[in-house]
Amino acid sequence: MTDYDGTLVPIRERPEYALPGPGLLSLLRRLANTSRVALAVISGRDADDLKKLIPVKGIYLAGCHGAEILFPGGERHTAVEIDKLSPVLEAVAAQARKCVSGREGFLVEKKRAAVALHYRMAGRTAALKALDGFETAVRPLAMEHGLEFVAGRMVLEVRPRGVNKGETVRRLMNLHPCCCPLYFGDDTTDEDAFRAVRENGLGVLVSGRGPVTAASHRLTGPHEVLRFLQIISA
Ligand SMILES: [Mg+2]
């Protein structure tokens, strides 16, 4: 099980620039065809976005941290009522756009089951101000509809409470009880997943730095993850 951005591919300035190379895709295809391996990509991105980025058959694609999972057989499973959630998330996204209007370096992303406010390209002071304004404006709405704020790497997300990578990993582990679970991730939102695999498997933090983690192992970047996957797929 692996995260995508910052784990399989390097982080880019904008999410749409983070494309997989041909080497990565053929490696994932090889792993997907290995009978003793079950493969899942678990990301904050939408499941359909993952499907476009990773056109690999026979794998799990978990979008919005697992709010929506595309199964290897093609079925779509949702952990939340996405249609009911949609108008609420529209309102959250509208607030986010209002908070960053006239400011440079922000990106508001309305996803199927979350709203992400990216501030990678913004200055620190502007980012703090915008995030503060956004939290204050959205908190009543979040409380009313069971949403929570989750901070990631240069992104603040609003998503349904209880949807996280830890729960998604547990679900996949239950589906494949004979597998030794491995999880690769680079971000704070991956810590739930590291905790979920800690007892029976290995959590691998993909980062050269970051002092506190629930992961048991560490690789320095996506290039090392690819090398590791090449070894286990051989
Ligand atoms: Mg990541």
CATH architecture of the largest domain: 3-Layer(aba) Sandwich
Measure the end-to-end span.
18 Å
Q: What average pLDDT do the residues reach?
A: 94
Number of strands: 11
Which ranges are low-confidence, i.e. pLDDT below 50, for 5 or more consecutive residues? Answer: none
Q: Give the C-level CATH assignment of the largest domain.
A: Alpha Beta
The biggest sheet amounts to: 4 strands, mixed
The oligomeric state of the chains shown is single chain
Strand content: 15-25%
Q: Strand order across the biggest sheet?
A: 1-2-3-4
* Share of helix, binned: 25-40%
List the total number of helices.
7
Broad shape: globular
Cofactors, ions and other ligands in the entry:
magnesium ion
Order of helices and strands: HEHEEEHEEHEEHEHEEH
User: CATH superfamily of the largest domain, called what?
Assistant: HAD superfamily/HAD-like
CATH-derived topology of the largest domain? Rossmann fold
* Structural class by SSE content: alpha/beta
Radius of gyration: 18 Å
Overall number of domains: 2
